[in-house]
Description:
By secondary structure, this protein is mostly helical.
Amino acid sequence: MTRWTALLICAVAIGFVLGSQVSRRPEPEEVAQAPAAPVENKVTEADVELYIAVYSAMQSDHGLTIDDALVGRDLTLEQFRDIERRVQADQHMVDRVRLALLTQAKARNSWMPPGAPTPAAK
């Protein structure tokens, strides 16, 4: 074998080794995740009643802000939003609140005839 042939074979071998190293994709590293703390998503009866009361107050006085509706209820806006998130995560609760607010709105508006069309649920 000539020197040029040996040199060519070495160059090809080096190119093959380097090429396989470059094209090899790194293995994804597994990241250990801490177990998530259990989230309390259950909506209590008191939460639902409070949620309905706040929105009912805002429904009866359209100038009322949510902050105004929370005054005297010993509840921060963040706590109320947490209740709201939990209520909205449960379709049964959403339907219950919607029905309660609709019933109250109809009672306040005696001019609204029974069976009048209402906004469609999303």
